[in-house]
């Protein structure tokens, strides 16, 4: 039998469609090449407009973690108080990062599967002036979407506080509007709902965030300093660090795809497909880790059926052989199930193949399911897509 190809169904990187792959495979040009400079300018302008950012947009080679550091480096200084709202592993990542920078961290954390609430943030902000608040839009360890807009409403009453949102597992798949949501710094990267290979960090900074940057003067960081990149973002023929030329082209193609689909429809599609995939999984006994009101549109953590006695490592290895790579659970959820991405430029073929592979894997791992049961639910849900 011919080896089954593997769909990348981990929560990022996500499947990269052919037209984006082709951009990455192009012959690399000089970063001063006039056509590339125009492409880079267009990418920066499009991202700013699509995310309704009144300030500045940065596209820099790096991963999502670098975006987190870039957000902190440009809006806080040693000794500042910072409120970290954490719903799991990636929310917690801000703690160490802040402490290394000499920031005083106050932590608001939610039970895994749930979220920090606007009321919790309101209470914390009423007790002290924080220079910044961090929120992880979609927490990749739990599949929880934080109420980013409602927390933004609370932040609007505290104009001295910078609202930092980690959009790594959300941007391009979940609604993000810098202006109405009151977000000051939004960070994300290329390999999740943008459907590009890993390697680019995108950071949007509101006017308020840029004003904060001005008050900091020279900052200790160099590569991630907004001031170093600003001239390049305004005129990409200028140099600070070599741009990831082929990834910028790939991002341009990803943006073209997003515009063609329409951002509002793209967000709605992600919510519909997340609900359909969850129903399909529930039909064969799996459960969703995130509480219903916090289920993310971009990825899910699925717990193994109760009493099924599934060996986690074996299940995911068989599933990969059957054609779908998924990720193991982290922290409090380790061994209880798997994490699956359903974001980016994925189509019906991808979802159907992934769920079919899960059904075959259940049977192969001794969990008796009726083949086609989850697929039937999925197919029904995809009829009107
Ligand atoms: C919510 C969130 N934040 C930050 C990161 C870190 O991004 P990267 O692995 O690209 O550095 C991840 C990675 O999965 C993530 O899911």
Describe the structure in your own words.
- With 385 residues, the protein is of the alpha/beta class.
- 43% of the residues lie in helices and 16% in strands.
- The strands form four sheets. Strands 2-10-9-8-5-3-4 form a seven-stranded mixed β-sheet, with helices on both faces. A four-stranded antiparallel β-sheet has the order 11-12-15-14, with helices on one face. The chain has a two-stranded parallel ribbon with strand order 1-13.
- Helix 5 runs parallel beside helix 6, helix 11 runs antiparallel to helix 14 (373-382) and helix 12 crosses helix 13.
- Bound molecules: pyridoxal-5'-phosphate (PLP).
- Pyridoxal-5'-phosphate binds at residues 12, 63-65, 90, 136, 140, 166, 168-169, 189.
